[in-house]
Amino acid sequence: DAKTTQPNSMESNEEEPVHLPCNHSTISGTDYIHWYRQLPSQGPEYVIHGLTSNVNNRMASLAIAEDRKSSTLILHRATLRDAAVYYCILRKGSSNTGKLIFGQGTTLQVKP
Amino acid sequence: ETGVTQSPTHLIKTRGQQVTLRCSSQSGHNTVSWYQQALGQGPQFIFQYYREEENGRGNFPPRFSGLQFPNYSSELNVNALELDDSALYLCASSSVEPTDTQYFGPGTRLTVL
Predict the structure, then answer these.
(1) With contact defined as beta carbons under 8 Å apart, do A46 and A65 qualify?
(2) pLDDT band at A29, cuts 50/70/90?
(3) How buried is A8 (Cβ within 10 angstroms: 0-12 exposed, 13-18 middle, 19+ buried)?
(4) Which of B42, B58, B105 sits opposite A99 (nearest CB)?
(5) Considering only CB atoms, which chain A residues are within 8 Å of B42?
């Protein structure tokens, strides 16, 4: 299974944009890039996913490098509620199990 | 629409005992995945059930077993509990295909003494 690398922690100020990076240099052509986040004392929550093109939804944007070896999750205006552990996950498009392989994730702190 | 629910919320067992954890999937979802999350770590995939059959398993010993019922709810059973089994056990459901987005429950916190 391809591996992802994320910074252990990041800080942001409230109402400012946040860019969370993820490296996945061994990604294969059929791997989807998924982002989940886990708020304190809760189960993980789906944020966004993509394959090759940049993606936007109501929660965030996902920018995928042209060579697909890295991606960035963008929170346009951080709120205190966005403080969480953010996981970048590669999911095999060729697999029928859909299992998610979580790494350590990035702990995001949002300061008021 | 009801989300994923898990029971019990917390559980304390002693080494060697057996435990059963329960999960009710989100309405309309036919796939349930189970994960173990040790303190300070990311969740680890245990196994997945799709239409009542096991559909993939992670690197966990056979004493971790599961079931999925006709209403798509699920159970995780752990026999011969060990101290290292202390963790948050998460259940996630997804719709239609096993590869769709997974929706997680709040988890069951298991403590093994």
Answers:
(1) no
(2) confident
(3) exposed
(4) B58
(5) 85, 87, 102-105
